[in-house]
Amino acid sequence: MSFLDNLENNLKALESRDEADSTVQRRRESDRHNARAIAPWAEKLKNSEFVKNLMQQATRAGFQLRTKVHITWIGPVLRLEGRQQRLELQPTPEGVMAVMFGDAREVRRKPVDLASDPESLVREWIPMIEERKRIEDEAARAGEDLLEEI
Length: 150
What we know:
61% of the residues lie in helices and 21% in strands. It is α+β, with helices and mostly antiparallel strands. It has a five-stranded antiparallel sheet with strand order 1-2-3-4-5. The protein starts with a helix and ends with a helix.
């Protein structure tokens, strides 16, 4: 490789790195802007009575189903998970969204009023857990039947 080829390759590498750096910088700026936009809603979410009541009601409903409801804060997002069925409360610049992740990539989104009672949200999410529990119980019974035949 000649000196000129080497120099040309180095210049191309520097140019592409500058382009990548500007892309990264734009992404970071966008992330900072988004964080500032959701900050008021994230703060309201973390300090609201709605969240405290939601955690209590979800835990109680999970106990009745003999299912552990895992509650986790991931940054500004509150995640409740039971039997691989997730409910996330995500702050957005417009407010707080409830996002329910079910089987088969099923996703339901709905806005949340933090001044309301979370019971309706729990009543909408718990049937997803019940369905998953029913499927798992049927699979376990089928496995037991198969073992009895052997």
